[in-house]
Predict the 3D structure of the following.
Amino acid sequence: VNLDHWLPLMIVLSSLVPGILIFCLPERRVSLRTAANMVGATAKLMLTAVMIWGVFHEHIYQTRLPLLPGMDLVLHTDALSVLFATLSAILWFLTTLYAIGYLEGSPQPRSRFFGFFSLCVSSTVGFSLAGNLITFVMFYEMLTLTTYPLVVHRGTEESMRAGRIYLAYTLTGGAVLLIAAAWLKALVGPIDFTEGGMLTAFSGLYRREFIVIFALLITGLGVKAALVPLHGWLPVAMVAPAPVSALLHAVAVVKAGAFGIIRVVYDIYGIEFAASLGVLGPLAAVASFTIVYGSLRALNQDGLKKRLAYSTVSQVSYIALGAAVLGPVATIGGLVHLVHQGLMKITLFFCAGNLAETLGIHYVSEMHGVGRRMPWTMVAFTLGALGMIGVPPLAGFVSKWYLGAGGLAAGQKWVILVLVASSLLNAAYFLPILYVAWFEQPKGLWPEEHYRGWLETHWMLLLPAVITALLALAAGLLANAPFSPLEWARLIASREYGP
Amino acid sequence: VSFVELPADIQGLVLMLGPGLPFVLGLALLLRRWQVAITRLNAWSALPALAAAVLVPSGIYKEFSWLLLTVRLGVDDTGRVFLFFTALLWLLAGMFGNSYLSRDRHRARFFVFYLLAMSGNFGLILAQDMVSFYLFFALMSFSSYGLVVHSGDPEALRAGRIYIYLVVMGEVMLFTALVMLYDMTDSLNLSSVAHPPANEIVFALVLLGFGIKAGALPLHVWLPLAHPAAPTPASAVLSGAMIKAGLLGWLRFLPLGQVASPEWGGVCIVGGMLAAFFGVLVGVCQTNPKTVLAYSSISQMGLMTVAIGAGLSSPAVSPLADVAVITYALHHAFAKGALFLGVGVAPATKEGTRHRWWLALGLGLPALALAGAPFTTGVVAKTALKLAIAPLPDPWPGYLAVLLPLAAVGTTLLMMRFLFTVWPRRLAPFHEAAGLRLPWTVMVVFAALSAWLLPEAQAPVYKALSPGALAPALWPVSVGLLLALVAVVTYRRRILRWIPSIPAGDLVAFASWVTRPCLNVFRNYLTPTLQAKSSTLSRSFSLFQDACKKAQFLWDLEEVMSRWIVVVTVLLSISLVFFSLLLLT
C-alpha cells in the first residue's frame, strides 16, 4: 500500500468508520462505544502527526478518486490543510472525552449523538483536506447535515427551533456556494486549490464574472463564518449541548466558513489577484463591521453561552480580516487566529458547560463567587477570556499583534482601530465576568448543584478544559518554538506569497 | 559596577529567576497545602532580581528565541538603578506585609497578587524587547488590581473599577504604539527602538499610555483612590516602585537623545509643573495620610516629567536629563516607600517619649528628603534636575528657576500636612510592631543614603555638597515650615476657619458631582412627569420614548432575521440580484 496515496483518506476514515460503527451499536454498549470513539480519535491524532512530519519536509500526500466524469474527489495535504486538520484532530480528541463525561446519564440516545459527532468530525477533516472546490463543497454540505442532529439533540421546543433556523441559514448558504462553485467550474474548468492562487492564470479574462463569483462564494461561506448580517443562526444555535457548541464555535461549523474564505482568497483567487479585482476592500469592511458589531451585541447578554456566541461572531471575523488585508504579516495573523480562536473559544465553552452541568449556572448574573467553588474551571475560563482580550502571553495577543502589524505594513491603519475597539469591547464584556466570579461573594445556594465529589466536577469535564486552556497559553507563550501554530502560519504564508 | 564576576550560565539564570521566581511562587501560593511554607518565603523571592541588579554586568543578554516572539532579558545602565530600588522596595514591603497582614483572612490571596505584580515589575525592567516589556507591564498592571481591591470595601472596589478602566485604556494605547514602532523599525529589540523615526501618534500614545501609570495630570485620577485603598505594604510598592514603570516606559520608548522635539518637550515640562503644583494644592486638603502621600507622588512624578521634557527638547540635554530622572526616581522610591510604611508603623508605636522620637525621626527624615532639605537625598535629586534644566533654550531656565523652589515650598507644606495627619493619637496594638519596624528602619536608612551613593549622580552630588548649594536648598523648606506653622496656629485660633475639602480622585469626584444633579433631575423630576403624562413636556418625552422603542425594534432586527423564511428569501434574492447584475452589464 502506498501511504502517499492513502494517508488523507485514512485520516477521514479514522472518524467515519467509528461513526458508522457506533450507529450499529445498541444503546447499552457504553464501553464498546467509548472504545470506538477513543480508538478513532487516537488513530486520527497519530495519522495527523505523520502528516505534519511529511508536509514539513515538503512531502505531498494526495488521494484522488474519480467521482463523475471530469470531477475528482481530491484529498490532499498542504500546509494550510495540515494546520486545520491538526487543530480538529486534537480538539476532537478532547471534545470526545468531554462529551462522554457530559452525556453520562442523559436520557437522549447517545449512540445517535456520538455517531453524528464522529460524522461531523469526518466532514470537518474532509473539508480541511479537500484538494479542490467540489470536494470542499461536498464535505461542507455534509457538515451541515451531520451537525443538525447534534444541535437538536435535546429535542426541546427551543432546540428544534434553533435547528430549523440553523438549517435554513446553512442550506441556503450552501446553495449559494454551490451555484458559485458550478459557475466557476463552467468558466475555468476543474478548480484545484493551488498555493498562490489558481485563477491568477486567468487574469485579464472574465473580470466581471470573477468579481460576482467572489461575492457569491463569500456570501455562501459567510453564513457559516457568521459574517454580519448572515450571523443570525449562531446565537440561536447555542442551545445545543456544551460539547456541540464547543466544537461548533471552535473547529466545525464556524471555522468551516472561515477556512473556506481563506481557501477562496489564497488558493482559488490568489491574494494579489483578488486585490487587483478590488474585492478585498469590501470583505475587509464586512469583517471589521462584524468584529465590532459582534462585540457590541455581546456586551449586554446575560446568558453566558449567548455572550460567548456573540464573541465568536466577532472573533471569527479576525480570520476574514487577516485574509482581506494584503501582505504576509496580516496573512499570518489571520491564519494563526484560525487555531488560536479555536483553542480559546473551546476552553470558554467547556467551562460554560462545566458551570451549567455542575452548578446549573447559565447566566453571568449567577456566577457570583464561583471561582471559589470551581477554581480550576474558572482558571481555565480566565485564561481563555484574557486571551480573547489579547493580554500577553496568551494566544490572542499573538494574533492581534500580527493583524495589527500586518494592517500597518499594508498601509491600512484603520485595522489598528478595529483591533483597539474590539479589544476594549472584549475587555468590557469579559472582565466583569472575571470580577464577579473571583471577587464577589457567593449569593447563597447555586441554582442546581449536581456534583459533589473529590474534584470540583467530573474529571472528564475538567480535564479537557484545563488542557485546552494550557494549549491556548502555550500557543502564545511558545509562539516562536518549532511547530507552534505561529511557525506553521509563517510557513503557509511563505508558500502562499512565494519566495 | 560589579563586585564579583559570575559565570555566564549563572548570569543567565539570575536574569531568568528575577521575574521567574516570584511568578512561580505566586502560582504555587494558589495551592492550599503550600501556602504556609511559601508565605514565609514570599518577600525573599525578590533576591534574584536584586542579585541581577548588583551582579550582572551591562550588555549581557539572555535570549529565549522560542518564547513568545523572542524574549530578551538583560540589565542596562538605566535598568540597573530601577531594578535595584524596585527589588529592595518589594523585598522590604513584602517583609513588612508578612507582619502587617498576619491576621488577615485573605493574606494568601494578597500575596498571590503581590508576587505576580512583583514578577511583572522586575520583568519589565529586565525586558530588552518590546513584546516582553508589554507582557510584564500587563502582568503588573492586572495583578495590582488584586492589591487595590484587597479590603473589599466599597471605596476599594470603586478605586479598583476606575483603576482597571484606565489600565485597559493604557494597555490598548501601548499596544497600538508598540505595533506602530515595530512597523517603523521592523525590530522588536529595545535598542533599535531607540532610533525610531519621529511620529506624532506614537509620541502621543507613549506619553499617554505610560502617563496613566506615572500619574500624569489628567490621567492621575485612579492614583489617589487606588494607592490609599490598597493595604499599606502594597501602597508602598504602588507609589514607590510601580509608578516608576511609567517613567521607565518613557525612557525606553521616547526618542530621548535621538530626536529634538521642543513641542513635546514643552508639553512635558508644562504638564509636569502643573502636576507638581496640582498635587500639592489638592493634597493639602486631604485628611487621609495615605491620600496625602498619593497626591505627593503625583506632584513628585510631575517633577520627573519635567526632566523627561528637558531630555525631549534637545538631544544634547538628554544625558543630563537621564541622570536627573534616575536620581530622582531612586530618591523618591525609597523616601515614598519609607513614608508609606511609616503610615503602618505609626499607630503601632508604643507610648513613651523615646518611641515617639524615633517615630518622628523615621517619618521626618524621608519627608524632609522629599522636600529637598540640605544633606538629604532630595537635594541631590533636585540639583540633578536643575543641572538638566540649565542648558535648555531660553524661556525655560528662567521660569523654572522661579517655579522649582515654589514647588519645594509646596512639597514641604504637603509633608507637614502628612505628618499632621499621620501622627498617632490612638493606639492600634494588634500589629506585630517588631516585624513592621525592621523593614521600615532599613527603608528609612536607604531613603537617607540612596542618591548620595549613586555612581551616575556624581556631578549633582558634588554640586549639592558645595557651600553655595546650602541656601537655595534651605529657604524653600524654611518658608514651607513657616507657612505650615502659620496654618496650624491660625487654624487653632479659629482665624482660618475653612479648609476646602476636595474629595480624593478630584476629577472623577468632580465629574460625578456634576453629573449627579443632572441624573437626580432626570430621576426626580422628569420620570414622574413622564408617568403623569400631563404637560406638553412629558408629551414630547413620550414621543422620544416611542422613537426609542422604534430604534429598539431596529436593533432587534435579528429576531426577524431568525425566521427561516426571511433568511431563505434574502439569501436567494441576493444571489438573484448578483445574477441579474451580470446579465444586465
Notes: The two ends of chain B are 78 Å apart (CA to CA). The CA atoms of residues 276 and 517 of chain B lie 31 Å apart.
